[in-house]
Amino acid sequence: MDFDAIVVGAGPAGSCAALELARAGKSVLLIERGPFPGSKNMYGGVVYPRILDELVPQWWEEAPIQRWVTRRSTMIMTPTQALTIDFRSQNWAAPPYNGATAYRPDFDHWLAGKATDAGAQLLCSTVVTGVLRDAAGAVIGVRTDRPDGDLTAKVVIACDGVNSFIAKEVGLYGKVDAANYTLGVKETLALPKEVIDERFGVRGREGVDFEVVGCTEGVNGGGFLYTNLDTVSLGVVLKLPRLAAQKKRPEEIIASFKKHPAIAPLIEGADLKEYSAHVIPEAGYKMLPKLVGPGLLVAGDAAALCLAAGIWLEGMNFAMASGMYAGRAAAQAVTRGNTGPDGLKPYLEMLNSSFVLKDHRKLQHIPHLVLSDRVQNQYPAFVANIVERMFRVDNPAPKPGLRRIVREERKRAGIRWRDLLSDGWTGMKGFS
Amino acid sequence: MTAFRTDWGSISFDDRMSTSEFRIHERAHIVVDGDACRGCSTQECVVACPARLFVPTSDGGVLFNYEQCFECGTCYLVCNTEGAISWNYPEGGHGIVFHQT
Asked: Among candidates B33, B23, B60, which has minimal Cα distance to A36?
């Protein structure tokens, strides 16, 4: 065997896996298909690196972050209205921090550097084109697009992203259903730092995180806006089959989001610096593949470990944690000399007893609810109209009671009580 | 009502794509089966591809480009016609290179 372990993909999952293996004294090769780690990666723009406390103590002193999120706004939008729940906390402006905006090419590159500092070998500009298997079908290495590019290892960890050709080749996914995926498209928009500070009401390295529902032109999904130092990341996430069915182009949906009266003043005069796109595994627990194969572990987006649960939109933390546990389980298996399915099974136990699968299990009904037609297309107008009528002064008519407003608006929105209660119940149960 | 300048949102698609860096390899990493596409009435790839790489032709087929591909996978995921789009990654070190994403 050439290595104890080969990790495919130097994103957050792969780098944490390689870091853990290298620290355990194992020989590990980290393969990246881009010219540098992070070069193929984009996301909305916020990372919650708490899990790094375990791997890189005081990570906030060196991680290449843009701003610390101190302001979180959730916005319910219709073409002419916006209801915002705006929260800010100065507790998130100081160590140990909470969320941060960061550019993935910077952040992922930095994290991969932690793995190589610990002794992992990094091989960039190399595509893994398939796995090598022994006579019994166990994975014993990878084939790459380099000349004489076959490389063998006791364990292979697939951190090859949302399209994971490795997990699919080994048969860990069932039928791939487009309905489990969303397309994220975003614009990195340039604005001077002082303009961002002024428009978003922040100072220094403080930043904002806006999540929006009801801004995607009837295509199920959502919008986001995050502040970096001298750019803002603005984009939309769109449910794939609906995007195709509704014949709306992604960039047109972004353009209409940008023109919304609640958004336009925030980005006025900003020039497009970079346009990007990526697919997200958005269906949560229900779409998880098998996470362990013979000689193989899967982590991060490749394992569909991504949480799109409305008020929580997280992926990198699940990638870093699952990668870390995969690396830890692989190192232990190599030490024990048992890299068969039994030897690798502790990976599942680690995931099950950590937030990785606990959160996914607990919130398993939420992604479907958040992307449902009612939440997407009926509730935003229902809620916004109730608030509009509460604040509207209809003199000489006296103020209507809240109960009457809700009753009338529910009727106008065409929402049945049954559905409202059932969605409310699903939400309550799912979040509690 | 104050009119905010919104024209920067409507830059041409070519200008939009020129903000992303692509290190193009001579080998196409997307292959489309022309016959399968001519029989497809929905052509989801044409609408959904964020890089607009798929263009319908007058004879009902689909022309495609591979050069400015984000490598996201949308096209093969939305495709309703089994085997119409063969998709893998470009050669190591080639394709999309993100910077401030």
From this structure: B23
Helix %, strand %, coil % for chain A, to 5?
A: 40, 25, 35
Give pTM, 2 decimals: 0.96
Q: Residue A430: its pLDDT value, please?
A: 83
Between chains, do A244 and B42 touch, taking CB under 8 Å as contact? yes
Q: How many residues does this entry show for chain B? A: 101
How far the first Cα of chain A sits from its last, in Å, is 48
- Tell whether A35 is within 8 A of chain B (Cβ): yes
Rounded mean pLDDT of A285-299? 96
How many folded domains does chain A comprise?
A: 3
| A407 in contact with B, Cβ within 8 Å | no
Q: Is residue A207 pLDDT above 80, yes or no?
A: yes
In angstroms, the CA A199 to CA B3 distance is 17
Please indicate, yes or no, if residue A386 is contained in any of the structural domains: yes
Q: Domain total for chain B?
A: 1
ipTM at complex level: 0.95
- What does the pLDDT read at residue A138? 96
8 Å CB contact of A163 and B73: yes
Q: Is B95's CB within 8 Å of A144's CB?
A: no
Domain with B45 in it: what CATH number?
Answer: 3.30.70.20
Residue with tokens 């290179």: B97
